[in-house]
Amino acid sequence: MNSETITLERRVLAKNEDVADHNREWLGAQGIVAVNLMSSPGAGKTTLLERTIGDLAGSRAVAVIEGDQETTLDADRIKKAGCEVVQVNTGAGCHLDAEMMHSALTSLSPAPGSLILVENVGNLVCPALFDLGERSKVVIISVTEGTDKPLKYPYMFAAADLVIINKIDLLPYVDFDVERCEGYARSVNPKVRVLTVSATTGEGMSDWYEWVAEQY
Amino acid sequence: MNSETITLERRVLAKNEDVADHNREWLGAQGIVAVNLMSSPGAGKTTLLERTIGDLAGSRAVAVIEGDQETTLDADRIKKAGCEVVQVNTGAGCHLDAEMMHSALTSLSPAPGSLILVENVGNLVCPALFDLGERSKVVIISVTEGTDKPLKYPYMFAAADLVIINKIDLLPYVDFDVERCEGYARSVNPKVRVLTVSATTGEGMSDWYEWVAEQY
User: Fold this and answer.
1) Tell me: the pLDDT tens digits for B106-146?
2) Domains in chain A, start-ordered, CATH in brackets?
3) Under an 8 Å CB criterion, which residues of B touch A?
């Protein structure tokens, strides 16, 4: 990258930071917790959301912000699960940013105390750079993706407050070492929490709900 | 994006195009075929490469260019498979570009007629925008990622010459519809070829080798 590109990148990120701070302040004042879910395509974000909404919506107002390059497929799934949802289509863009988060919040106008689950664009690289003003960042990886992911995509894992290892129902059929993967995640982010779940069968989901409750 | 960002993006892509054209010309003159492999993290690019090297290296000079944010884990696996390899670490970057491809080719100095397999950074979004000067672009998706991926990441699938649906050995354990996925891929790219393989068991790999031979 030449110096012009770097300068512009800094300016873009600084502007994003301002809007993110504004979002964070507004969310804090309303007692709303926003959680930013990031992963590769196909790691199971939407399935995890569907089950989470079904299990938590009775006890707390839950709303979802859906980021995708195209289509409203995920938003449609979330709506069916019985939840307020706003779709953000990024087109050729590879991540959500604070401005998109701001527009989505304006359109949702969530009740005080709500839980906002943000499903970022499926991408283990770029979303790590863009603060949305969220309370916490969660990285989801699936056991089908390979044990070494935290080492190969360290920026994403360094940014995370929580790592969820998903699809543990498939462990018998794939070559994946949960303990080693956890160790790799801690090697780039010593304090990160790690949970193992199957969003499909429900195994381990109660640990995730406990973690969510701790964010309040 | 503001107009300044768009102008700079155009300039960056135009410069990339110039270098890509130069790479393409040089590769063509040497009768070298370069194939750019793109996918989400964990779709099985490296495993596919390992098997391909084992099966093809007897009949043709094969070399690999490995793109990763960090680590030489994949390059080490490729070296073990018995192949010339150059590692390109992109740091926070999310894709390979034509300049990186040029440096890697200079360092490899492949024999005329070689096959160059490029493993791009695991990312189903950004690498689609950056021409490397390669002969063909291949997108690999795994059956664990979900049937709807071509609709949700249309830019990548529109750019592809070939889609490889990998990990078909896991079909009994996941909810994935090969025929519908193929239909979705054709809906964004009517002429794209689609193959189904398991790089782990070897099923379907001979179709992939035939496709590679057709690139010459």
Assistant:
1) 999 999 999 999 999 999 999 999 999 999 999 999 999 99
2) 3-214 (3.40.50.300)
3) 4-5, 8, 12, 40-42, 68-71, 73-74, 92, 94, 121-126, 129, 141-142, 144-146, 148-149, 151-155, 167, 170, 173-174
